[in-house]
Every structure is written in structure tokens, then in C-alpha cells.
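FORM 7B: Structural annotation worksheet

SECTION A. Query
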Amino acid sequence: MRNQFDLLVFDWDGTLFDSVGWIVDCLQRAAHGCGLPIPSDQAAKSVIGLGLMEAMEALFPEYPSEMARRLAEGYRRHYGDRIISADGLFAGVLDMLTELRGRGYRLAVATGKTRAGLNHALAATGTELFFHSTRCADETVSKPNPEMLFQLMSEAGIARERTLMVGDSLHDLRMAHNAGVAAVGVGCGANDLFELAEFDPLACIERTTDLLEILS
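SECTION B. Predicted structure
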């Protein structure tokens, strides 16, 4: 895949940052706080990557939107208990981002996080200067709608055939498919490699840092 792409778009949670276990716990605690059935680990993982309201509505479709708002508020409280730092990045991610920038790639983030949440995460991990642009679920349309990718490609002035999406969830790969963009699935987050292979990505890799090898 050497010289095949110019723009690399990364998901954040479960792709660059090791947070899937914490997100699952926060979703389950939010449900408990609202007196709702606690979702299984697998059910909670299945909504990671969606915008927060979309995730709550997907987990509890039988409840009115007011309950989704209560769940989202509870989730935010619990998630805020974690101290975010560079230690939460997957091993080797900082070196990978440094090398990719050095190779001339433009780097971007497309995430289900809120703008405030992503800005905090970028600043706390010291990664904000690596990315040319970012998009969050509360400022556009949630995955798997392709709008995030369309906006990032437009901002960078890079065509879809020169863009690669890198993500750990089915929502990431569905978004890439809907945008007509190539994708690489990583097995360190919400979905395993077998599940990710369903969308026929260019590659499925165990760790995001393995991307360096397949782009060589």
C-alpha cells in the first residue's frame, strides 16, 4: 500500500486510545443509575463509535428520548472520573503518528466523541499537533453516516481514492464503505478481526501500530 494514500483518518477510542473497557463500564454504570437492565459487555461494545445519544438510543430503543438524555448525563459523569493522559494511548501510537507525519501523510480523526471530549483528550495526550483536522459526532452526523469523512476529505482537498480510514469498530468500517473510502480494521478495540473482516477492508491488523508495516 506504499504511496497509495495521502490522508489517513483514525478513529480515537479503541484505535488510538485504550478506552473500550472504560467505556463499557461507564455505559453499564449509567444504565444501573437509571434503573435499567445492565447491558452485556458485548452489547455495550456494539455501540462504541456512535454519537453518545445514538449509542444510548441503540442500547435502549424501547425507551423514550428523555431516558437517553438521562443515560448520556450519567455516562458523562462516570467517564469524567478517569484521568486522561498519554499513558492511555496504545503502546507505540506516539511513535507511529510521528513517523506517519514524517512520511508526509495528512492525519485526521473521525470520532463519536463530543468536540469538548476530543479536545480534552488531544490536549491531555499531547497529540493535538499531529492532526490536520478532526470531526466529532456532535458537530456533524454520527457514524456510520459518511458525512465526517466527506468533510475531512473536503477540508484536506484529498480525493476518496487517496483516503484511508483506520478503525476498530463496525461503525468505522461501515462509514468508510458508505463514503467509498478504503479501510483498515484493527482488532484492539470494540470488534474482533473476524467481525471486521465482514466489510472486506484492505487489511485487518491486531494493533494500530501495525499500520506502519502495511504502508511501507
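SECTION C. Observations
The chain has a mean pLDDT of 95. The CA atoms of residues 185 and 196 lie 6 Å apart.

SECTION D. Sign-off
Analyst initials: ____
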